[in-house]
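job 3f2a | input accepted
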Amino acid sequence: MVDISIHSDANAAAPLIELDRATVCRGVEPVLREVSLRIDAGRHTAILGPNGCGKSTFVKLINRELYPVARAGAPAVRVLGQTRWDVFALREQLGLVAPDLQRDLLMAPGLIAEDAVVSGYFASQRLPPYRDVTTAMRERAREALADADAAHLAQRHLASLSTGEARRVLIARALVHRPRALLLDEPTTGLDIAAQQRFLATLRKLAQAGTTLVLVTHHVEEMIAEIERVVLLRGGRVFAEGEPEQVITSECMTALYEWPLSVERGHAGYRLVARD
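job 3f2a | predicted structure (276 res):
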């Protein structure tokens, strides 16, 4: 691993996520291999790497869908300082935005956007008939939709929305608990360029308002200006980590993707260009 981080006690914060030599297997093959990293609360972080590097496994590990290989000694995974979490309690602290979740919600017939957001209180794909939905829940759902620039979609059927509109509803659902952080898994997948830019503008607003972002992606174009730290994954291991300008370089990207690449940086952010 190449570590080109700049460490400062002044920037220290309570860890949001800590991995200590975490290994995760899918079947018999390890997908994450003794990964150690720390993501601080309040410090917007991107996890970047090519397909198959372990990004989705990282998300599922943090979201308690997968578990590390058992071992003696210190716990391999801590989220907000805890090693054990009830999934419902975890979602209140760490909101998830992922295309897979969006597909699941779209399978619920007749679901309107506001109800999709309220369903976040119950970690379900629709409103459970046996649970009471309070006025306070409805009011908070509308606030979350406004925070995600989706207030005008509240009474629209989810199935009638564009992919970009539905993705903003998904952000509102993740925000309904006022979580400390959002975990975003390939959040612009399926969006056209205009919807992507609107979505990233929403993320910038949330970051500036104080919601910590953990962005998991293989697109450097998603690296909004508020991202302060980048962790590169390759082959299930941490390949490099540090501040964006130190890590998002032509040399690092060429090594990461094993293809000659140049990094261009402009007012809109980063862009990778394949070299001849």
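job 3f2a | Residues 193-209 form the longest helix (17 residues).
job 3f2a | closed
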